[in-house]
Amino acid sequence: MATTNQSAAPYTVPGLSTENGHEVAQTLQQRLHALNDLQLTLKHAHWNVVGPNFISVHEMLDPQIELVRGFVDELAERMATMGVGPSGLPGDLVRVRTWDDYSVHRATAVEHLAALDLVYNGIIEDHRDAIQKVGELDPVTEDMLIGQVKELELFQWFMRAHLENSGGALQHGGARTEQDAAESAAQ
């Protein structure tokens, strides 16, 4: 007979109320879904990048994928520590996400990088919102998220360096969708 799966334990970390600990963990769940999606999106771009800068972008993405996978594990373990079972299930991710699938398939390096720049904008903005939300409740979780944002912003800079002209303008500046960013960068 199957046992009932409880998603939350009746405890959290010392120094937080169970209610606050579980609230922080629920905030982390959305970040966990976003980063799981990001690692898959990066791998998709890694497989589908073509053109003259193929090898540099293909190889640049692998360490970022590994770093994001580490972030996913860190978030899930923090949630479990706080007494809330993390969900890494694809169906749950698709059901609760607030964003669409990545929309660029086989494309040049600059097209993927321009589209990924917009993906990173969303990830980083949402991580910063989570930092604000958890900051007053749990400085340990806040610190973890700050460290993740630091690394995500660094990688975004690496991507933008491929897209920037000497005046600092991005090839896809002003684009609002991944497809628009990719098309602008391709011109």
From TrEMBL:
Matches recorded under Pfam families: Ferritin (PF00210)
Taxonomic superkingdom: Bacteria
Polar residues bias locations: 1-19
CDD domains, alphabetized: DPS (cd01043)
Residues of the Ferritin/DPS domain: 27-165
Coiled-coil annotated spans: none
Annotated stretches, region: Disordered: 1-20
Protein family membership: Belongs to the Dps family.
PANTHER family: DNA PROTECTION DURING STARVATION PROTEIN, GENERAL STRESS PROTEIN 20U
Protein's name according to its UniProt entry: Dps family protein
Taxonomic placement: Bacteria, Bacillati, Actinomycetota, Actinomycetes, Micrococcales
